[in-house]
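Minutes, project check-in
Item: structure for the 601-residue chain
Input as provided by the requester:
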Amino acid sequence: MNGWRWLKGYLRAYSGASITKKAIAIYVAAVLIPGCLLFFLYYRQTSGIIEREMSDSMLQTLNQAEYNISNGLANVASVSDNVIANQVIVEYLSSSAKPAYEQFQQFQELEKLVASLERSRGIHRIRLFVDPKLTYSREGIHFFPLPLLDSGSSWYRSMVDRNGANYWRGTYRQPYLGESDADVLSAVRMLHDPLHYETVMGVLSVDVKADLIGDILNRVSLSPSQEVFVVNDDRLLVSHPDTSRLGQPSDLSVTQMEWLSQSAEGRFRDDQGASSFLFRRIPNTDWTIVAKLPTSELSGKSVVLTKISAVLLLGIGSVVFIFFLVLAFAAAAESLNKRIRDMIRNLKVAGSAHFDGSLPKPKGDLRQLEGAISRMVQTVHDLTAESYRSKLHERDAQLKALQAQVDPHFLYNTLDSMNWMAIRRGAGEISDLIEALSTYFRLSLSKGRDVVTLAEELQLIRSYMHIHNTRDEGGIEMICNVEEALLTCRLPKLTLQPIVENAVLHGIHRKRPKRGTIAISVRREGTWLTIDIRDDGVGMPPERLEQLLEPPGSDKAGESYGIYNVHERLRLFSHDNGAGVTIASEPGRGTTVTLKIRLDA
């Protein structure tokens, strides 16, 4: 009860306080306390983030070591490829049936070839384990009998599984004739008879000293207590700072070896969390570079960096941010309060005149400002909607006006045709012409509709062409190529008639004789309906094409007016400036008019 009374008293004191005191209270509650909580969370999270960043940096160091090792191994693999690609070597190794003197000559040539390849950078020895029937198979330096190899060893089975590809054998102790034993690693592979691939001619072993990897790993510097080594999938050490452990099992557990095989690189800790491991797989081998270092050295650096950043953040944030932000916020609040009152007064005068006072009157400066702005936004919204409706009415009126201008022009031409026919032939065929004209007017009026189907528009064109062919004794043939599914597509009324009329009057009728063909083809292209109207009339020059789609003046011909009319109506109907008319023509070859109409208009 006392706590509730204290809260009410505090709220009363807060409501009567000055804006500066309110700003300080808001700052403490909204900025300072949340800032301290965020700082605490930041301190806890930053340690892990920095530790991961340091691990990523160390992984980049391992990546560089892996890159250097891969380059060295690639040179060795290249020498191995050169050996098996040498046709002379392959041919000689499969010549065990030849006489001894020929084998001796072949051995001399092989010795030269192998010795030359052995001089490549990083190569210690090239050894070939061949058919024991060859006379030089027991030479002991470069050539050895194939049964000398232990076919039951794990590396031999892995090599056989590679089926002729290189397999990297881990570090082992190898004696050499005429020199001291050496720790080496080898690129080994099966040699198959190219004519009988299932036949094994021998085994190639390209040896390099283990120092090839050891020298690279010795240059890796991650921490004072690091242990960087290379291990294969059989858990055997390929390279290690302690050379006496080469070829021996590593200290990694089975579970840790499974982690190494799950990805190309990564990090993990041991079960006790005392040691951290970073690893990177070496491509084209079953080897992995592993860096083992104490977790305390990795996390210790991150803790130090976290503490330093935390202290700096707290000090600078407390001294600079609190002092200047409180003063700036107090001054801005005083100025803002005055500006808010002025805005409310102006909005009441300019924005409330259109309302009847039925809206609730909010309390407080900011809430009054919100209400006034809400009314102003509503007014702007109503005005925008009204403007949009006006534009729609204006566009519809323009479309209807453009369409209404087409009918009288054709009516005049039709009556003229009927007059000349009556004069020339009497009244015998006028009834047929009148019937076609009636059909035309019925379709053109379309019961007052402004939009018709493609089927109705094509029927209108057929009536129009019947009238003209009756007058001109069938001089023009019309061909329509339309899929039945497109006949229900909608388009503005009297879209095709002006184009066909121009093709008749300004194209075919100017030929001698006045005979020709008009072809109409319709296709669908995505959301567009494309109509091509081709005639084989007289065509027109390029300069005339440029004038056809310009707004016609009072002195322009009907041809330009009709095409411009159709072009504008299609753009208004489709609500897209990509719609309309395009024209292609060549003098003496005819004209093609293409109409594009949006199907979803």
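Outcome recorded: The radius of gyration is 47 Å.
No further action items on this chain.
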